[in-house]
Amino acid sequence: MNIVGLIIQLVSGAVGGNIVGPFMGKSNLGPVGNSIAGIVGGGLGGQLLSMLISGGAATASAGSAGGMDVTSIISSIAGGGVGGAILMAIAGLIKSRMSKA
Length: 101
What we know:
- By secondary structure, this protein is mostly helical.
- It has one domain.
- It has helices at 3-20, 30-54, 56-65, 70-100.
- α1 packs across α2 (30-54), α1 (3-20) packs across α4 and α2 (30-54) crosses α3 (56-65).
- Mean pLDDT is 85; it is low at 59-64.
């Protein structure tokens, strides 16, 4: 696994979570909650996207070689941001449903 790619995914996940948060209205978790949900979602989403794009074995060998090109950086940003936004939205909806009960 490439640590730089993982850091990019986590940071872009936090950004994605904080971008989606204000649009969620009452489901907004606040800056810290949005960031935490985004970081977790960014890590998961980025890893899933990298496995889907290049396959599990290819990702492991590329990570050990230390190769970071523009394509892998962009896919880390996209996967992390989208994963962070999706997980933040899911967590916000769960929070909203639980507060109604």
